[in-house]
Write a structure and sequence with these properties.
homodimer; about 300 residues; alpha+beta; six-stranded antiparallel beta sheet; 8 helices; about 25% strand
Chain lengths: ~300, ~300
């Protein structure tokens, strides 16, 4: 718990002191929304995208965020300044607040916000050089009609159970199918396959979170005229892929070279995966100057 | 927050001081299981049943309960003795504990336990005399293949969303259907219908929590040779019922006399509902002497 700063409703503490009421609905029901990003050279990465998605998640479950996005950024900045590391993990959690115990959302008072910041080590280079091994989980992804996977909420047991299956088999992660047998996503990332030079990723209708890396990659494919198809992907199509990779904000593009212990394609990161990965890295690099300038404004506002 | 005692890992505090780490997986992911019961004349009601179900829920998601059931009872007793009210609400929450942030259950150390006790007022007599009004929610119940409704877990957003629909329409509660269109349960209770003198309740396969009141009622129906059928119930069958009622540990049998604003049967609590309700009250009364004696042993053990 060292090198952690948590900002709870404006109070910054270390990890050991960071506590929330047991009456908080995030604790009682998972009645919360969240986002995760990181800093690069002390600047939060793709922050605007994450804050837009946070608001979308909240809106979809009728949860009121108790502060403006400008104030939320300031509170993130306060934690990050105290933490003072080059590369930080940032998790922003907004809960519906606390009150009398009961399902009724109206029982809660004002929402609570919790910003967890901590030092983030680099991920192992072997993930990118050799690729990772995943399984197809028996646990199916929640449906849009019960708890929409496109709401990033504190109801994450579904993914915990799928991840536990992967862990048991020594795999890096698990791919989750929907109730129709189609691919949705991994437990914390989106999924892509390559077949005969064409990129495929499932549509939101398959039941998945609209990843921010996914969104930018879709645009990049258009810009660079890369053959792409956003269509439901069956388990058979997944297994017959030439390449598979996953995408997430902190992991970016990670090649998947083994599926249920069988090699995918050549068993090595494929050419399209590497091309996409490079395009994405260049794209986010190109955003950095603007992001740093915007963040400098937030830091400046702390002093006034 | 007055008249509340919370026991967190053996430390009893008032409601305002009752806090848990923001790194607790119950808070981060709803990675927890729980049970709710109440005391009657300072004796926990159907405690053994609830503790068996708690262990079943934990086992189903691979969560280790960090203390024995004997010790858990002692810790409940410590909170209840401090609370010292005639009729108390009791919520026992067991989480997978805290540790590094990540889906992997192995990242957690020992689990945490939280026992919330507070004074429980009597429910309004009108619920029982006149019946309550419910709706059929648009939110569908989680599936057994994603997050099994027969695990009483901290992933309760599904039910919160259904309840919010009911609240919006001024109803008492919401009935949730499964993805095949069959009735499952209300947001915190099981559901029963009566048609032509026969009782019907959905099987566990429809996707619902195995209620403790439900379990005892099934036995009582057999003992008293009441016509009963445990079969999937369609929405049409629900709407055409002569009587509907819900059951839960703290609410017991509550007649439902309106469904989506339309009267059910006569629009008044029906004869079978009242008969069942009486049978159940008599049954639990008959258990009380034994439950009180067993609880006296727990209280006695606190002093040694």
């Amino acid at each position: 718990m060292s090198n952690i700063i948590v900002n709870i409703n404006g109070e910054c503490t270390d990890g050991a002191s960071a506590k929330i009421s047991v009456f908080d609905r995030g604790f009682l029901y998972g009645d919360s929304v969240y986002e995760v990003t990181q800093t690069i050279d002390q600047t939060p990465f793709l922050l605007e995208d994450h804050l837009v998605r946070l608001q979308n998640s909240a809106q979809k479950i009728g949860l009121t965020i108790p502060l403006s996005m400008i104030d939320l950024k300031k509170q993130m900045a306060r934690a990050l300044v105290k933490l003072n590391v080059k590369q930080a993990y940032i998790r922003v959690i907004i809960t519906r607040g606390e009150g009398e115990i009961g399902l009724d959302p109206a029982l809660a008072g004002t929402g609570n916000y919790v910003i967890i910041t901590k030092e983030l080590p680099d991920y192992p280079q072997t993930w990118y050089r050799e690729g990772v091994s995943v399984i197809v989980a028996n646990t199916l992804r929640n449906t849009k009609e019960s708890v929409d996977p496109n709401v990033k909420s504190g109801n994450y047991l579904n993914n915990v159970l799928a991840y536990a299956e992967a862990k048991k088999l020594g795999a890096f992660d698990a791919i989750m199918l929907n109730h129709q047998g189609f691919v949705t996503e991994c437990t914390t990332s989106n999924l892509w396959i390559v077949k005969d030079g064409v990129l495929f990723t499932p549509p939101l209708e398959s039941g998945l979170l609209e990843g921010i890396t996914r969104k930018h990659l879709l645009t990049l494919c258009q810009t660079h005229n890369l053959p792409l198809s956003v269509v439901p992907i069956s388990e058979d199509e997944l297994r017959a892929a030439d390449e598979i990779f996953l995408t997430s904000t902190t992991k970016r593009c990670v090649p998947i070279t083994k599926l249920d212990a069988a090699p995918i394609g050549s068993g090595k990161p494929g050419p399209v995966t590497l091309q996409i990965s490079k395009l994405y890295d260049d794209f986010v690099d190109s955003l950095f100057t603007r992001e740093r300038a915007e963040w400098a404004q937030v830091l400046k506002s702390l002093k006034t």
